[in-house]
Amino acid sequence: MAGKVFSWLDERLHLQRFSNKFLVKGFPTHPSYLLGEIALFSFVVLVLTGIYLGILYEPSSRLVNLFGKMVPAAFASVVRIDYTSFGLIIRRIHHWSAMVMIGSILIHMFRVYFTGAYRNPREVNWLIGVGLFAITLFAAFTGYLLPYSEFSVTATSIGYYMAKAVPWIGDWVARLIFAGEFPSDGTIPRFFFFHVLLIPVIISALIGLHMLVLVKQKHTEPWANQFRPEAEGGKRLIGIPLWPQQALLSLAFFFMFLSVITLVASFFPVNPVEYYGPPRPGTPIMRPDWYFLMVYGMLKIIPGTIHFKFLGAEITSETLGGVIFPSLTFVVFILLPFLDRSPH
Predict the structure, then answer these.
(1) Cα separation of 122 and 335, whole Å?
(2) How distant is the alpha carbon of residue 187 from its chain centre?
(3) Distances, alpha carbon 75 to alpha carbons 184, 244, 254, in Å
(4) Which among 30, 43, 242, 284 would be 20 to 30 A from 183, CA to CA?
């Protein structure tokens, strides 16, 4: 019966042709090639936990009653999530998965750089990876605000003033991202839309495109394997086929990753919204997560008294440390494959 069903499907969908072409492709077995899979697994966990959190979250700044106090609805919904069954652990898993995704993409880019895998003909996939890293950072930034605690509002306000500091179009950029002056009634819905719909769609598209190009161009050969006779002069990738060996290995690795991230979430808390409380006047002492520390450090180093005009644009310390510095960093990433003229 199963054979007849497969024959019926194969006649219409050409499954055997697909299997012969794609499912036998070789995957390298070097551990460093798992970094991309870690980023992918992190995104899967983020989507699954985000669905649960999104069902219980209220993206609104309207005041509601929480234990006898009037607080923003977004803040109250996060506190209630922490008190629901599995709510706190799922929120922690979501938080640490985001950390791991950003870190694994960054280390994966380091591996690609140090192995020269960004050179011709793989410039396109390098650019896709840079875009994926940038949009993942923006996803983390939009997620900062959603708990709407004093900590998250203070951290997000730094981004607001950075957006306003963009030369010539800063006010327009700030209004587009933050839905007007920050904080406004439209800021949380705007960030919620970015975080749960627009950005995941873009990330999914970039991951799909990245995998499509990877299948087309194949993996790079680990350096040590280039001297093995099985490589046949570089014409054959040494590794294991996608099905079933690599598929089973990836499935086992996914469950191991899920176990580790759950263990980390069980013992290491995230920013406690109950401790910081809802937004209020004053600025608490805060420090952003590690992936924003370079920008935060530049903003601290550059004197706040800097202010001058250039071709009609207002240039401030936020412009230099929060706009120009990270922009130049990504410009270097983008131009790297085209500036590197070393042999392949």
Answers:
(1) 13
(2) 21
(3) 15, 46, 32
(4) 43
pTM: 0.90
Summarised one tens digit per residue, pLDDT across range 221-232 is: 655 455 445 544
pLDDT > 90: percent of the chain? 60
**Strand partners for 65:** 70
Check: CB of residue 211 under 8 Å from CB of residue 40. Answer: no
Report the alpha-carbon distance of residue 340 to residue 270 in Å, rounded.
41
| pLDDT at site 327 | 95
Residue 304's pLDDT band (boundaries 50, 70, 90)?
confident
Q: Which token pair is 334?
A: 């983008």
Return d(Cα 98, Cα 25) in angstroms, integer.
30
Tokens of 216: 């087309």
- φ and ψ at 306, to 5 degrees? -65, 125
Residue 48's Cβ-count burial label (10 Å; 0-12, 13-18, 19+) is middle
In order of 101, 262, 270, 283, the CA distances from 31 in angstroms are 17, 22, 29, 44
168 vs 165: CA distance, rounded Å: 9
Distance between CA atoms of residues 76 and 70, nearest Å: 9
Contacts by residues 17-24 (CB-CB < 8 Å, ≥ 24 positions apart): 19/243, 22/215, 22/242, 23/241, 23/242, 23/243, 24/241, 24/242, 24/243
pLDDT at 2: 67
63: which 2 tokens? 């005041």
Give the C-alpha separation, 37 to 24, whole Å: 18
pLDDT digits (tens, 9 = 90+) for 54-72: 999 999 999 999 999 999 9
